[in-house]
Design brief:
Blueprint lengths: L1 H14 L6 H26 L10 H29 L1
């Protein structure tokens, strides 16, 4: 029921938009809808990798985690150094 109420409210608001702005409104709505579809596709793409860690050996997984930690620390230290230069 609420869905119908909101759709009616949207239609009512659209009817109040000046004719010269309708094309802009259409672009906004169209791009919003396309964006929703793209974000849904992105989620599906990301979820393809869910569980891929299970195929890694324990040693490879440990090495991988250590490498990530080292990269994060390196990245953080560079960022803090760069911030210090600009303050």
């Amino acid at each position: 029921m609420k869905k119908l109420i909101f759709k009616n409210k949207i239609i009512e608001e659209i009817s109040l938009i000046p004719d010269e702005k309708i094309a802009e409104l259409y672009d906004l709505i169209h791009n919003f809808r396309i964006g929703l579809n793209q974000s849904e596709n992105n989620i599906n793409d990301i979820m393809q990798f869910a569980g891929c860690w299970e195929e890694m050996s324990e040693t490879d997984f440990t090495d991988f985690c250590e490498e990530i930690e080292q990269r994060r620390q390196s990245s953080s230290s560079r960022r803090f150094t760069d911030e210090a230069l600009f303050t």
